Structure formats: structure tokens, C-alpha cells
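User: Hi! Is it possible to get a structure for several chains at once, not just one? Here's what I have:
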Amino acid sequence: MINTQNAADRTITIDRTFNAPPETVWALWSNPEHLKNWWGPNGFTNTFESFDFRPGGDWRFVMHGPDGKDYANLNRFVEIEAPTRLVIDHLVFPLFRLIVTFEAFDGKTRMLFQQVFDSIETLNTVKPFAIPGGQQTFDRFANYLAEHSA
Amino acid sequence: MPDQLNYAFSALADPTRRAILARLANGDASVSQLTEPFAITMPAITKHLKVLERAGLISRTRLAQSRPCHLEPAGFKAIADWLEFYRNFWDQSFDRMDSYLKTLQRPTKGRKKK
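Assistant: Yes, the chains can be modeled jointly so their relative placement is included. Here is the combined structure:
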């Protein structure tokens, strides 16, 4: 079980607004025919082997990278509350939980996305010097270790 | 997930190993110097060092008898890059989601848009 308590420092948070009502945005997550068309970075395609969209249901799929490499994935749906909240566990390394909430406003949808990593200690250690644009990774790491290992 | 990162993450999961890294952040040290502050034996420290070395987080010189350990910045850079990988993963996914949404919303023939 992935612990999501006190997770701020091992979480990637993304806040996005889509120009469609929550029901429409929800369908892009809940319908595999839609989901497979956008999941993954540029150049990736997906083959879904199973998509059991209910709490406890598994979603097995292979991501095909632009470099020709295949990445096998196993996700499990944890919470499904259409069209407001979706929780998915990623069950192959690295373990993480995705928490996605959808909020209607002004005919649009604000989607708040969180990726919570499971490796508590690890990500606590790594996150502070992995801020985008940070070039002094090593110095900051050294300082961080010095502060947290006393 | 490359093996190297896998090793790095498991290496960092241990508090003793993080403490060793913190000590090395202040400068290179031999096994006996590293053993001093910890309530564990030298063989135990050596075992931790092997894990850190395999993870690419430290290296040990073969030039001196004491084989001092030092931090390897490249190993840490790989971990930071990996988190950056995930941020890009989602940013790009949601960009694609947005474009895909627009193609779905494209008005069909004969249907007037207000």
C-alpha cells in the first residue's frame, strides 16, 4: 500500500485547466479508447492488454517508445468517483500513486494531478535538489545531506 | 528504469548509507574514518560502501593503501534527471490530452457553434 500521508516532498504536482466540462475530461481517463491516444510523452503509443475500470481493477498496458523500446506497465484503480476523483496505483518499479481531481469552473475543468512516490526516504532525499532548472544539483545535495543526517 | 537508477534508489533508502554520503560531502574518507562515527563494524560499513559504489554514488581510489572513498556527482545527477523525466512525462501527456480533446470537440458538419 502506498502511503500518501505527509507526502508533499515526494510528490510531483501539476495543475491544468482544460476547455471542456469535467464529464468530458473524465471520459479521456475512463475510456481506454481515449486514454490510449494521449497517455505518455511525445512519440509514445500504447497497447492496452486489460482495462478493468473499477476499484481494485487492473490496467495492464505496454508503452512503445519512439526509440522502439517497449515498457510494460501494471496499474490498479483504487478510487473512482466520476467525474471528480480518480486514484491509480502504479505497481511496477518505481511505485507511485496518481491522484487526479477534476473541478468544474466556468464551463471548464481544473485538473489537479499528483504523482506520489512510494520510496519515502529516497524521494525525501532526492526531491530538494531536483527542482527544474537547478544546475547545482551536487552542491545542494551535499548541503541537504549534511543537514538531514546529523 | 535503468539498473543503475534502481541501485541508486535502493542505496539511498538506507539511513546509514545517507549518513555516509553526508560525511563524504565534507571530503574524502577511508573506511576506518567512516566507521568511527557509527555504532557498527568495519565489515558492515564496507558492505554499505559496496552498495553505494555499485549505485555509482561513490568511488574508491585504488591508488592509496587506505582506498579513500569520494562522492560521484554523476550518480546524483542521474537521479535528479529521473525526476525531471517524470515531470516531462506528465507535461507532455497533458499537452497531448489537450490536443486530443480539441480534435474531439471539432464541430461536426451541419452543427452550428454558438
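Residues 46 and 109 of chain A are 25 Å apart (CA to CA). The two ends of chain A are 30 Å apart (CA to CA).

User: Great, thank you!
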